[in-house]
Amino acid sequence: MYDVCIIGGGVLGCAVARELSRYSLSVAVVEAADDVCCAEPAAGGIVCAARTLAPFRPAAAKYAATGEKMFRAYAAALGVPYMQTGCMTAFFDDADGARMLAVNARRCGVGCTELTGEEAVAVEPALASAHILRAAYFPNAGVVDACAFVYALRRNAERNGAEFIFGFTLSSAEFTADGASLRSSSGEVVEARRVVNCAGNGGGQVARALGDFIYISHRSGNYAYADVPSRPSMPVFFERAGYVSPDPRGGYFVGADTADCARTVPEVTGAPDARRALRDRAGLSAENAAGYADVRALMRGGDLYEACGKSPCVLHLLGAGAFGITVAPALATAYARSLRAEKRADFLPVERGIVRAAALSAAERNALASREPLYANVVMTDPYVTEGEIAEAIARGARSVRGAARRLLPGRAEPDARFAEAFGRLTEREGI
Ligand SMILES: Cc1cc2nc3c(=O)[nH]c(=O)nc-3n(C[C@H](O)[C@H](O)[C@H](O)COP(=O)(O)OP(=O)(O)OC[C@H]3O[C@@H](n4cnc5c(N)ncnc54)[C@H](O)[C@@H]3O)c2cc1C
C-alpha cells in the first residue's frame, strides 16, 4: 500500500509527486497515457501570477504569487531553462483595468508597476505601433518550456523513489479504514492511504469514481505558433485582443480564440480571430501561423479547486486552467508540507537536462562519443540529434516518437524517418 497515490501525470500531479518524494513517504502516480505531459504538450509556458488577478481568483492567486517568486530557483534545480522576461497587460483605453490589476497584485504580493503607454513602449519596444494608453507590468513573470518542466519533475520524482504507473485509467474505487483501493479500467489495482485527484480535464470523471461530484466545465482554445516580426521579449496580454508570448523553444505563441465546449478537442483553426485582433488593434503581425487546439478544465468562477472529498483520504486539485504551471511549485510544496512527514536526508534536489551534442565543442563531442559511442551516430543534422540523445530520452520515459521528439526537438521541428527508425531500434534494444 502506497502512502499517497496521485491520479494524473500532468504538471500538478508531477509537482505533487516530486514534492512528496522529499519525505519518507511511498508515492505512486497513476496515469492513463504512456507518458507524462500528454494533456498539455502545447501549453504556452507563461509563468505569470497576474493571470489569476483579472478576474480575481483568490485560491489560485495565493499559490501563483508564491509560485512566480520561487520559479527561477525551482526550475534551475530541475535543470530547466527559465527566462524571467516580465509580462505585460496592455489596455487601449484609460479606464481602470491597469489600476484594478495593480490593486489586486499588491493585495496578493505580486510585483506590479502601472505604466503609461509611453512607459510601456520603453519597457517593451515591440509595442510601439500598438497605441496603448496604459499597462500593468509584472517584472517577476517569465516563460518556460512547459513540457520540459513536467518531464524534469517526473524524472526527479522517480529518482527520489516515486513510482509512475502508466496505462492506468482510474475507473472505480473502494474505501477501507486504511485508505482506498483504486481500480483501473483494465482491472489493475493500486492501494493507497491517501489519494490526490490531479486528473485535469478528466478530473470530473475521476471525482465520480472516487464517490464525489464535482462540476467541471470545459473551454476549447484555438492558438497558433507563429513568427512575430516585431519580436516582443515578453508575454503581452492585450485588452480584448488576445496575447502574444515568446516560445522558449523558438517563435511565438499567439492566442486565443476560446469557446465553451464538450470534452472533445476542437478543430484546429489557427486562431484567426486572435491574429486579426492582434494585427488590427495591437499592430502586431503574426506570420507563418501553425494552429493548434486544446481543451481546459475550468471550475465555476474559473478558480483553482482544492478540497477534500467525501472520504477524508481524498484531495481534489483541479481547475488549474491557464495557470497550472505557475501554481504547481507552491501548491505541491504546501500540500507535501501539510502531511507533516519526516524529511529524507537522501533527497536528490538537483536534476540535469539531456546532454545536447549540438551545444558541445568539437573536442567535447568527440570525448563524449568515445565514452558513449551512440553519441557518434548522427540521426538528424538540423536540428542536430544523435542516437545517444534519443537513448537518453527513452531512459527518461519517452515511449513514443512524439514523446522523444518533444524532449529533443525545438519549436516546430518534426522528427524525420531516421529519427523514428532510431527510436524504434533503440526501444527494441531496451526491450521496451
Ligand atoms: C493551450 C494551453 C496553454 C496553456 N498555457 C499555460 C501557460 O502559459 N501558463 C500556465 O501556467 N499554464 C498554462 N496552461 C495550463 C496548464 O497547462 C494546465 O494548468 C495544466 O495542463 C493542467 O495541469 P493538470 O496537471 O491539472 O492537468 P492535465 O495536464 O490535464 O493532466 C491530467 C492528467 O490526468 C490524466 N488522467 C485523466 N483522467 C485520468 C484517469 N481516469 N486515470 C488516470 N489518469 C487520468 C490525463 O491523461 C492527464 O495526463 C495552458 C493550458 C493549455 C491547454
Written account of the structure:
The chain is α+β, with helices and mostly antiparallel strands and about 425 residues long. The chain has 3 domains: about 1-85 and about 140-215 and about 300-355, FAD/NAD(P)-binding domain, CATH 3.50.50.60; about 85-140 and about 220-290, D-Amino Acid Oxidase, subunit A, domain 2 (D-Amino Acid Oxidase, Chain A, domain 2), CATH 3.30.9; about 355-430, no CATH class. Helix content is about 30%, strand content about 25%. It is built from 12 helices and 21 strands. Bound molecules: flavin-adenine dinucleotide. Flavin-adenine dinucleotide binds near residues 30, 38 and 44.
Q: Beta-sheet strand percentage?
A: 25-35%
N- and C-termini, Cα separation = 27 Å
Indicate the low-confidence ranges by residue numbers.
none
Backbone structural class? alpha+beta
Oligomeric state, counting identical vs distinct chains? single chain
Q: Tell me the helix content.
A: 25-40%
CATH homologous group name of the largest domain: FAD/NAD(P)-binding domain
Alpha-carbon Rg, integer: 22 Å
Examine the coordinates and then state which fold CATH places here, giving the name of the CATH topology of the largest domain.
FAD/NAD(P)-binding domain
Please, what is the average pLDDT? Answer: 94
